[in-house]
Design a protein that fits this description.
Transmembrane segments: 12-29
Number of helices: 9
InterPro entries: FAD-dep_OxRdtase, FAD/NAD-bd_sf
Strand content: 25-35%
GO molecular function, one term: oxidoreductase activity
Pfam families: DAO
Order of helices and strands: EHEEHEEHEHEEHEEEEEEEEEEHHEEEHH
Structural class: alpha/beta
CATH topology: FAD/NAD(P)-binding domain
Protein name: D amino acid oxidase (DAO) family protein
Shape: elongated
CATH architecture: 3-Layer(bba) Sandwich
Distance between the termini: 31 Å
CATH superfamily: FAD/NAD(P)-binding domain
Helix content: 10-25%
Length: 383
């Protein structure tokens, strides 16, 4: 996959080959006149970490009744995502949202009103679908419009689109540090390949899109001003019984669960607000989250998930556990209260030309691109 250029200078280096990093690199090359854009990814393949190890939900706002801004942005962004990546979107399943009678932070009536306020489609579920749920624990069930994405198809798109845009892809290559010289206005990114070879890349701009690794650079990189929380999470992959095969379910809003199609494997993910996060800590420089994940004892909690979920959705008890996806999830600490998922977009004043970007949902990519549209890269590129 690696494509090389003869010189060591670049207009931009994008660190992180997930969906965000790939989309930003393509945008810079196609739309902002950057002639040489380098995309660095520490893994062997693109979109193989957080872009893959997640619930694969294309949000339409339903998930965020306590954060109107996040919900509304999802409503705006979802149709755009479906239009731009139709080959990766799975639409042929029934999506249900159910409201619990106890411990939910919204009632069924409040949820229905919220959906109408953001313009999201919502209908009462038909009796046959309602019968899937335990009526003593579920207040009401709604039929909604929400989709899933196939991360493997997004990865295939990324490889093709990056090559067409002329972006240089360097996989198995990790960025270690970001420097600015006192005598050179350019930035320098120190890298290390899996082979042990080290080589710096000089560039005018650096885009730090490393998700959980945002603060893990030495040199002159100042770290993000926004405080981050890291979690080791477990997404259980399940083979569901026939009655749930073409259905996605979310029970909310509180300590509840989701079961969604996972198109990349033809299975369903099972996640639970209480059991999916295994441990958490405040992010800090020098404490590599991926190293912590690598040493984590990955003991599944699927039995506890199924036991609790089965109380609300009895058919889950007949699902077969296949395996679990463990990954580091990064969230902005300021949004712990309302469960909002805005983007992090920081321009580092102490390191001009360096940006850090993080999005909590795949559809947030449009919020990032809108931010980049306001940036003036022309002066530096012409110099």
């Amino acid at each position: 996959m690696n494509v090389s250029f003869p010189d060591s200078d670049a207009d931009a280096v994008v660190i992180g080959g997930g969906f965000y990093g790939a989309a930003i690199a393509i945008y810079l090359a196609r739309h902002r006149g950057m002639r040489r854009v380098v995309l660095l990814e520490r893994e062997r393949t693109l979109l193989s970490r957080a872009s893959y190890n997640n619930q694969a939900r294309v949000h339409n706002g339903y998930h965020y009744p306590r954060s109107f801004t996040t919900a509304f942005r999802s409503r705006i962004n979802m149709p755009r995502f479906v239009h731009d990546w139709p080959q990766a979107v799975k639409r042929d399943f029934v999506k249900l949202y159910a409201i619990a009678r106890r411990n939910s932070k919204v009632t069924a009536r409040q949820f229905e009103r919220f959906c109408r306020e953001i313009g999201a489609s919502i209908k009462p579920a038909e009796p046959g679908l309602k019968r899937l749920f335990e009526p003593r624990l579920i207040e009401d069930v709604f039929l909604v419009e929400e989709y899933a994405f196939d991360a493997t198809r997004l990865a295939a798109w990324a490889v093709d689109a990056l090559r067409e845009a002329g972006v240089e892809i360097q996989t198995s290559n990790r960025a270690l540090a970001i420097f600015r010289s006192a005598t050179d206005p350019r930035l320098s990114v120190a890298t290390e390949a899996k082979s042990g070879e080290r080589s710096p890349i000089r560039c005018r701009y650096v885009f730090n899109c490393t998700y959980s690794g945002l603060n893990q650079f030495s040199g002159d990189f100042p770290g993000t001003q926004t405080r981050l929380k890291q979690e080791v999470t477990e997404m259980a992959l399940m083979q569901v019984p026939a009655v749930l095969e073409d259905i996605g379910v979310t029970v909310m809003d509180g300590p509840f669960f989701s079961m969604m199609p996972f198109p990349a494997r033809g299975l369903h993910t099972l996640s639970h607000v209480r059991y999916t996060p295994h441990c958490q800590w405040q992010d800090q420089r020098g404490a590599d989250p991926y190293e912590r994940l690598g040493h984590y004892d990955r003991v599944t909690r699927v039995d506890r998930m199924v036991r609790d979920v089965g109380r609300y959705l009895p058919a889950v008890s007949d699902a077969k556990y296949v395996e679990s996806l463990f990954e580091v999830k990064t969230v902005l600490m300021k949004n712990e209260v309302d469960d909002g998922r805005p983007i992090l977009f920081e321009k580092h004043a102490d390191l001009p030309g360096c940006y850090s970007v993080l999005g909590g949902k795949i559809d947030n990519i449009y919020d990032v691109l809108e931010k980049l549209e306001t940036e003036d890269f022309t002066v530096a590129l012409a110099s």
